[in-house]
Amino acid sequence: MVRQILPWHRRLWDWIKSNFRWFIPGLGVKRWIILTLLGTTLSGVGLAIFILDIYRTTPETWWLPLLSAASLRFLARPIRVIIFGGIGLGLILGGILGLNRALIKPFIKPGRTVVETISNHRKRERGARIVAIGGGHGLSTLLRGLKQYSYNLSAVITVADDGGSSGRIRREMGILPPGDFRNCLAALSNDEALLSQLFQYRFPDGESNLEGHSFGNLFISALTEITGSFEDAVVESGKVLGIQGQVLPSTLHNVKLVADMKLPDLNREVRVEGESHIPAMPGKVQRVWLEPNSPPGFPQSIRAILNADLIILGPGSLYTSILPNLLVPDITEAVRSSRAFKVFVCNLATQPGETDGYDCEDHITAIEAHAGRGIFDIVVANNEWTLPLPGNLKWVEIKNGVEDRYPLYQTNLVDKDFPWRHNSVKLAQTLLDLLQERTGPLAE
Fold first, then answer.
1. 38 and 146: one domain?
2. Which of 166, 332, 352, 393 could pair covalently with 179 via S-S, beta carbons 3.0-4.6 A apart?
3. Contact between residue 385 and residue 395 where contact means Cβ atoms under 8 Å apart
């Protein structure tokens, strides 16, 4: 393969664009370069005064002609200033760039330059303040996309989970269920390779007491014992995974999710206790509530909601992930009082045992029945329904009536590999575009 040789002026221009990107606004680098140049200039002035004093006061010796030649005295003074100043500036900048590359190289991903890495980091530092409310796989999918745009992320998570490994830990140790927290911590990790895989590792079935437990759940549980509080354990776990953002409970109270369900072919209702039992019970959910009722919200979650630029409800299990957060009155009131742009992301597909036969309007009706009207500003929904779905899953379609109640934005949000789930990149890009359209750029 013959390598294309660019003209010299093209190569020069590419070199200038590559190296002078350090001076674009927002990197936070120029101030340190200017400070370095100022210090070097003052040091050079001091050295020049010292050498000039020696030159003027020292008797005529054999090395003075050599010094005169080295200082280019045979050239005009402005030319000498340009030559020595240019060489000095080039050496300083080259040294700074080389030092930066050497120091930052261990943290640069393959295929990225130093400038790109720093630029992306600064943009995310100044990114929108985003709060995502929910739980389960839907919330972790959303966070995985949002972390590419902002470090100012807060995930507010339900604590009503009582199934699987989380449920066992909750019953045996008396702490909040760590499962959803573990998923969100892994999703927010800067490196979802080995550490995140370890955090998500689940011990296989067998005769061991560890069967069914995930390593992350046990890790958070152990840190709870060490730190003395569940919220501190989540913070320390985030430090281990190197997350940018925070994962917060909606409440610290040990709450239980309860539902009234209408049984099929029977004109009566039954009461189902426990988040894990609700989808397993055949029938239609009529309403859900928490016991004890009206638990106080976690103050840090309330603060994050009130300070947010963007609040996102969903995606996720309607009755067991999204609504349990809104059943905490302080959380609902904070969402209602916040000046943020509030978006409801409707699920792509129905969930067996929870939303069988639901369309988008049914999801909205259920939220309004439990949290009141006007809890969000716009509905984001999928409009790609051609891919086949496994089992008895059905697409959540958009029927007439939704746009009469809320502004509706429809687009293709499907993950082609798992069509019942959102594509994290598409979803995050859509939400940030809507926010920018509503508010304009929040950071430049």
1. no
2. 166
3. yes
Q: Containing domain of residue 434, as a range?
A: 125-439
Tell me the CATH number at 206. Answer: 3.40.50.10680
Count of domains forming the chain = 2
Tens-digit pLDDT profile for residues 262-292: 888 777 889 999 888 898 888 899 999 999 9
> Would you tell me how many other CB atoms lie within 10 Å of the CB of residue 137?
18
Which residues have C-beta within 8 Å of that of residue 218, sequence separation ≥ 6?
169, 210
Cis peptide before 292 (omega within 30 of 0): yes
Whether 293 and 164 map to the same domain: the answer is: yes
Residue whose pair of structure tokens reads 């709870």 in the numeric block: 224
* DSSP structural state of residue 244: S
Whether residue 116 is contained in a domain is answered as: no
In a domain, 179, yes or no: yes
| Neighbouring residues of 254: CB distance < 8 A, sequence distance ≥ 6 | 159, 170, 174, 176
Q: Is residue 172 located within the same domain as residue 139?
A: yes
- Locate all alpha helices (DSSP H) within 266-399, ordered by sequence: 299-306, 323-326, 329-337, 360-371
Q: What is the pLDDT of residue 21?
A: 62
Same domain, 282 and 157: yes
Q: Do the domain assignments include residue 21? A: no
How far apart are alpha carbons 13 and 121 in whole angstroms?
Answer: 26
Same domain, 256 and 395: yes
Are residue 135 and residue 253 in the same domain, yes or no?
yes
What stretch of H or E contains 247?
strand 246-249
In this structure, the strands spanning 378-382 and 341-345 are parallel
Contact assessment for residue 415 and residue 422, using Cβ atoms and an 8 Å cutoff: yes
Closest CA to 317 of 360, 355, 261: 355
Task: Tally helices (H) and strands (E) across the chain.
Answer: 16, 10
